[in-house]
Amino acid sequence: MYSFTVNGQPVTCEEDKELMHFLRDDLRLTGTKDGCDSGACGACTVIINGRASKSCLFSLSKVDGKDVTTVEGISQRQKDVFAYAFAKTGAVQCGYCIPGFVVSAVGLLEKNPDPSEKDIRKGIRANICRCTGYVKIIEGIQLAAQMLREETPIPEEPAEGRLGDDFKRVDAVEKTLGTGIYVDDIVVPGMLHASAVRSAYPRAKILKINSEKALAHPDCEAVLTAADVPGNNKIGHLEFISDWDVMIPEGEITRYVGDAIVLVVSSNKDSLTEIKELVEIEYEVLEPLTSCEQAMAEDAPKIHEKGNVLSHEHLIRGNVEEKLNNSKYVVTEHYSVPINEHAFMEPECAIGQPEGDGVLLWSAGQSIYDEQRECARMLGLEKEKVHVQAKLVGGGFGGKEDMSVQHHASLAAYLLKKPVKVLLSRDESLMVHPKRHGMEMDFTTGCDEEGNLTAMKAVIYSDTGAYASLGGPVLQRACTHAAGPYKYKDIDIEGFAVYTNNPPAGAFRGFGVCQTAFAIECNLNLLAEKVGISPWEIRYKNAVEPGDVLPNGQVVSKNAALKESLLAVKDAYENADVAGISCFFKNSGIGVGLSDIGRCIVSVEDGKVHVRTSAACIGQGMQTVTTQIAVEALDIDPALIIAEQPDTARTPDSGTTTASRQSLFTGEATRRAAMQLRVDLDMGRTLESLEGQEYFGEYSAITDPLNSEKENPVSHAGYGYASEVVTLDEKGKLEKIYASYDMGQVINPRAAEGQIEGGIVMGLGYALTENFAMEDGFVKAKYATLGLMDASKVPPIDTSFVAAKDIHEGLAYGIKGVGELSTIPTAPAVAGAYHAFDGELRNVLPIVNTPYQKKKR
Ligand code: FES
Question: Which atom of ligand 1 has the smallest separation from the CA of 131?
Answer without folding.
Answer: 2
